Amino acid sequence: MSTSQDQFEHDAKRVAAEGRAIQDEVETREARSFQSGDDAPPPQTGARRYPVPPFDQAPLAKPGVEAELDLQPMWNAPFYKGSGKLEGKVALVTGADSGIGRSVAVLFAREGADVAIAYLEEGEDAQATRAAVEAEGRRAILIPGDIADPAYAKAAVAQTVKELGGLDVLVNNAAFQEHAEAIEDLTEEHLDRTLKTNLYGLFHMSKAAIPHMKPGSAIINTGSVTGLDGAKALLDYSLTKGGIHAFTRSLASSVLKRGIRVNAVAPGPVWTPLNPADKRGKALAEFGADTPMGRPAQPEEIAPAFVFLASPQTSSYITGEILPIIGGY
Question: From CA 322, how far away is CA 97, in angstroms rounded?
Fold first, then answer.
């Protein structure tokens, strides 16, 4: 065997030995960590601490009233300071009675906007949102009804324009969600309800709003990580959220020459009445635990993205985008 071959073999054995030493070191460290039972809690990355699973929360009846939640969603973003990003604007937010919609309405008001609060029937929650908007020094009106009804969509927009003086931002946020473990369990009535609320409603509200919107206006749709990744027990919901993403990009192209921007926010799990009104048992107690963050988002962690996409000061060159906020990859 040549000298060079001897050297190659010697180097190979050395490298293999170094690899085994590194392996032993890592396995020893991991074994020590496992034996100590010192599993790190979910990281806290925000301006304040947020709750982590497991949650002790009873299921809610639909449509889900936020006031009935034992663990109240965190929506008021006390560390968020307004800076006039929406000064003098008028916004119409569907599903603004609770959850993400409530937080969006409040932050819009903190940035200087008056807000029309569209909701289904959750009057107590809607009154709380209105009080929070007014506490920010802005006007708020309540418009209950079904967004899937085109007549309601036209009336809601007309009332907003008449009472608040115009319409600059539309947030299509209201949604229906109910799981079905197998496709055989998904009835036509169930599918129809999901499609009408999540897709028809978005279409009717957008169609009614756009003729009233001036250059610099914005539409923001609430999509979902389920529209990106799918969800085995949410076939219909995932279908509609994927449709919302596609509609967002298509409508953005359609209305760009009018000076209207259209974008979507695609959240992962968020602690709102929507999920306790759908999930049961372990799925509810461990809601959000499978994200890299180890917990669901709180509404106030999602709402600033809507401010960003609504304001021509911060996103004038952004349209047709889907912004995932999913707690890591």
Answer: 24
Q: Which is higher by pLDDT, 23 or 182?
A: 182
SS3 content of the chain, % helix, strand, coil (to 5): 45, 10, 40
Give the closest residue to 245 by CA, choosing from 322, 167, 142.
322
> Which residues are paired to 261 by β-bridges?
218
CB 66 within 8 A of CB 298: no
Taking the C-alpha atoms of residue 66 and residue 260, their distance in angstroms, rounded to an integer, is: 33
Task: Confirm if 299 and 95 have CB atoms less than 8 A apart.
Answer: no
pLDDT per residue over 255-265, tens digit each? 999 999 999 99
Residues in a beta bridge with 76 = none
Residue 69: Cβ-neighbour burial (10 angstroms; 0-12, 13-18, 19+): buried
The Cα-based distances of 282 to 58, 276, 285 in angstroms read 11, 11, 5
The residue-averaged pLDDT of 66-75 equals: 89
pLDDT digits (tens, 9 = 90+) for 95-150: 999 999 999 999 999 999 999 999 999 899 999 999 999 999 999 999 999 999 99
Instruction: Verify whether residue 237 is a known catalytic residue.
Output: yes
Identify the H or E element spanning 263.
strand 261-267
Catalytic residue among 80, 119, 237, 329: 237
Rounded Cα–Cα distance for residues 104 and 47 (Å): 18
DSSP letter string, 49-114: ----S--------TT--GGG-SS----S-TT----STTTT-EEEEETTTSHHHHHHHHHHHHTT-E
Residue 150, preceding bond cis, omega within 30 degrees? no
Instruction: Look at the block and give the residue holding tokens 């952004």.
Output: 318
Residue 324, beta-bridge partner list: 266
Round to whole Å and give the CA distance between 313 and 93.
Answer: 20
